[in-house]
Design a protein that fits this description.
The chain is built from 15 helices and 11 strands. The protein is an alpha+beta fold. The chain starts with a helix and ends with a helix.
Length: about 325
């Protein structure tokens, strides 16, 4: 009789424990923040700066890799919580749909002074006397000057044309560049080469720069590359909204590099959103930590810690004094 009663009590306790575990599961899930982890260095560092800070509030972080359009769509579906560096105009249609449907909340700029465009090493135009490099294309100023210099930027796989280094496979801006490329008629004299990674794109630029060879392609700032190399943007027709919508045959519009969150985050993690609303950097700060990342060989996580250790004056403006002390203690 006692054994039977004991077994019933044990069964009841087991059921209670299982129910407790099930009830606890959503609460645990609510303490995990999922970041869109695109393939460029600066966003990966920003993700881990934020992850380090909110870890002191008890949050775990996941980093989901992928291209910009895919991850913005994932945010609309609720599979991603935070995009720390949305180059909004590059995914304007998807962004507009997410905002219109109320799935995406725009918290404003991470940094307001971004840049993107087509460029060449400055020594191609002006030369570099210290390196014994004479000007190669002294009249090169705009994209419309490029056809006469196709042999200068010769494509090693197709010497009859020049080579344009496009953005990365899977990026929305890669398709934009393809449209601009054809609008300017450059497809007749140049091939558009799409690298497989940022490392391949930046590596091609650095290698040619160091050898004193010409290079022509797309890049953006802030980046460690533009922090180290002397590059000159090529002129395009001034940005015009109608032209941009029709053919992309003008300069890139000013791009908002904003912080986006899924609509559920303010309710699930109001303390995280409060930090994100204050989170702001600039081109100079980004170039600094990206140069550190490159020179030190450290990954995004260690670079984030370097930033937190060396720029207290910046990030302590985003958090409470109590949380700042917790972050500083965790860094020791």
């Amino acid at each position: 009789m006692k054994t039977h009663r004991f077994n019933r009590i044990l069964t009841l306790l087991t059921v209670i424990a299982l129910c407790g575990a099930l009830l606890a599961a959503p609460a645990h899930a609510a303490k995990k923040i999922v970041f869109a982890d695109m393939s460029w260095d600066s966003i990966q560092v920003h993700n881990r700066i934020m992850a380090f800070i909110i870890k002191q509030l008890g949050y775990e972080s996941d980093f989901i890799p992928g291209g910009t359009p895919i991850l913005i769509q994932a945010m609309i579906k609720g599979d991603v919580d935070v995009d720390m560096e949305s180059w909004t105009q590059n995914v304007q249609d998807i962004y507009d749909r997410g905002v219109r449907e109320g799935a995406i909340l725009d918290l404003g700029p991470n940094y307001p002074d971004s840049w993107q465009g087509w460029l060449v090493p400055t020594f191609v135009i002006k030369g570099d006397p210290e390196r014994g490099i004479a000007p190669m294309a002294p009249d090169l100023k705009s994209v419309f000057d490029l056809p006469k210099y196709k042999d200068l930027f010769k494509d090693p796989e197709d010497p009859s044309k020049g080579r344009f280094f496009n953005a990365i496979a899977g990026w929305a801006v890669t398709e934009i560049n393809e449209t601009k490329f054809k609008t300017y008629g450059l497809d007749k004299t140049y091939n558009s080469f799409v690298p497989g990674s940022d490392a391949a794109l930046s590596g091609s630029m650095v290698a040619d720069y160091q050898k004193g060879n010409p290079w022509f392609g797309y890049y953006w700032g802030p980046t460690w590359v533009l922090g180290k190399l002397d590059m000159t943007p090529l002129e395009e027709p001034p940005y015009d909204e109608k032209t941009w919508e029709a053919t992309k045959g003008c300069a890139f519009p000013s791009v908002d590099v904003n912080i986006l969150v899924h609509k559920s985050l303010p309710e699930r993690a109001p303390d995280v959103v409060a930090i994100l609303q204050k989170y702001e950097t600039d081109m100079k700060l980004n170039n600094q930590f990206l140069v550190y990342m490159k020179d030190s060989g450290e990954g995004a996580e260690k670079t984030a810690e370097w930033f937190l250790k060396n720029h207290e004056d910046v990030w302590t403006q985003w958090v409470s004094d109590e949380l700042a002390e917790k972050v500083k203690a965790a860094l020791k």
